[in-house]
Fold this sequence. Notes:
There is one protein chain. By secondary structure, the protein is an alpha+beta fold. The chain has three domains: 2-236, no CATH class; 262-355, Pdz3 Domain; 357-619 and 667-732, Alpha-Beta Complex (2-enoyl-CoA Hydratase, Chain A, domain 1), CATH 3.90.226.10. 42% of the residues lie in helices and 16% in strands. The protein contains 23 helices and 22 strands. The strands form five sheets. A seven-stranded mixed sheet has the order 20-17-16-13-12-11-22, sandwiched between helices. Strands 4, 5, 6, 7, 8 and 9 form a six-stranded antiparallel sheet that branches. Strands 2, 14, 15, 18 and 19 form a five-stranded antiparallel sheet that branches. Helix 4 packs across helix 11 (224-236), helix 7 (112-135) runs antiparallel to helix 10 and helix 19 packs antiparallel against helix 20.
Amino acid sequence: MKYLLLFFLTFISFASLFASKDSEHLLLNHTKQEPLVPTALMSDETKWLLGALEKAHFKKLSIQQLDRKIFLENYINNLDKQKLFFTASDLDEFINRYEPTLLTYLRQGNLFPAFEIYEVYRRKALGRLEHTLENLQKAPNLDGNHSFLVDRSEVNWSQNTDDLNRVWSLLVTHEYINEIFSQIDENESINETIELLTKREEETLKKIRKKYERWHKNILEFEATDVQELYLTTLTQMFDPHTSFLNIKEKEKFDQAMHNEFVGIGAVLTDSDGYCTIKELLPGGPAEASRELEPEDIILQVAQGEGEFVDVVDMKLSKIVELIKGPKDTLVSLKIRPFANPSTTKTVKIIRDKIKLTANLATASLHKVTRNDEKLLLGVVELPSFYGSSGDGHKATDDVEELVNVLKKESIQGLILDLRRNGGGYLSEAVNLAGLFISRGPVVQVKSSDGKVRKKFDFNPKLIWDGPLIVLVSRYSASASEIVAGALKNHRRAIIVGDTSTHGKGTVQSLLPMNLPFSFSADGNKKSAAKITIQKYYLPSGESTQLTGVTSDIVMHSINQYLPIGESDLKKALDWDKISEVNFRRPEGEFKYTESTIESLRTSSINRQKTSKEFDYLEKNIAWFKHKRNQKLVSLNLKNRLNEKLLDLNKTQSLTKEYDTLSALSYPSRDLVLQVVTEQKVKSLAVRGLSDEDDNQSDNNFSIPDRLDIRLHESLRILSDWVNEISLSQNAHAHSSGNKNI
């Protein structure tokens, strides 16, 4: 009780510091709310978290070593990501007040600084929104020459409230134009559109008001546990970007995500500066099947079926997930801002479905490649993650082995392991899977915070494929994917093809449940947890994959290299370093490539990329993407914006038309799946009273894909060049014996 009383007395005096004359009119009329306060359990969890970070984290940092000012700045930035409510003087006040005693507060498990700062944020945000709503009575001026910076996360804080007023005036105009764009008909002329929209002023204003009312409501719904999570996650990310705090609710969601199935659209979502961003599309899910969504697209609004859209900008991510999830076979509509063209929006309609474990399992395909009048059969295995199970569940290694054996029965002459969308998984599966392609030897080294290095070997001499092997990667290939790609490259067993390098995540995290003696929560035995970075990975060569990733032997130009999606783009990422190489002798007779082979294949690929239609299209698409991404400012003149939209539409339609013509270049292919997937498919058809005979017949036929996968297509050509080179070498040296060095 004494603890709580101290907080209220402190808060009353502190909050008064921010009731300055220039902001007073913004703070008078907002809804009266009791201030959020931390609980005794939160205090215990904070002290436990500090101990866990100092003892378990790889860096072995003491809390005393943290930069208190940066920590406070990060927390304030996380509260007001677009710098719409606080001013520079607010920031100075917070830092001057809390920086000197911040570590003492943390050691005591005292979260009052977090809650006091949040309470000021809430007062300012609610006041600002109510002031905006009161003054949103007529349409803004749409004939001026102003522009607006859509992403304000990197700008300096406004100096005073007058500066913020100007920002909000531009923001409201920008939002008004965005709402207009949602109503226009692309087939109408610009003059017709402007004339029509002037008649819809009140309707547009009403929708804008609803948006700000929802924003206001979301702030009111922010809970004490949300403040705790934001503050403690800000703390954990002072150690590294992959260390985090999970409160009871978030821990429960984490556990649910480990289940084999759920109903939704099949997309992994993340919060990026207040925007719900698609981080990953789950293979086989409705979102991926729609071909309308891509990683880094931003979800702006969500509607149930054909109902009214709900704005989700700055909405709590868990609430957005609740909106998107729903009963099976029901419609959800998403209004998105495509990452490839962020100045536009589009509506995507998706039928929710059950996302089963099999949707995340390995798949394969068989390709008929004709080169120089010679027909080759080449196999592709796509592995979405290094999944595993301690019981009878599926393991990545077992599934890849099953699929490769199916491909071998088809007499393939070369194999591609596609890890482009593989973000990692179990270390043990990475070691075992790499072992499928080498007879024996080191796969990875793991260093703990005490400096001890453990070497993980493949001791199983079993090989499932000893022929030409390509590992196809991208900047999204991370962690366990990088272990496999790096190990096979170190063994000179596989050629790495794709983006310039992989993601660069060379760390491993451990999930530690908070065991708090004599602590009881309202949720019974449910516990919060900490996900802490405890180790680093190293390749057999001794090089870390951290930051640099695994470099490709043959590079294909990609939009990914212009996106901030790598480990090196993350704040507080651990440094790159190197340890001793593992000395080992490659077994005699093991298939491996030579430098001359790589040089020959690289030269041929570069020449194709310079002259082929698909790479000409790719270069145009990348150039357009870079052009749009560099447009940081948007015009607040309606006629100018409509002209820009028309130009954008013409350009995207032209690129789409050109891309559609490329499908004819695809090689005939046939999809192959695991036995368990086939069994589930048969059961599913049986439930519907259908037979699988016709379906099985079609599955055995080769067909031309509707869309050309440009990078896979080129990888197949590289592999066919390699197979032909081997054939020529074997014919020329039929009399020789020994190692299969090519």
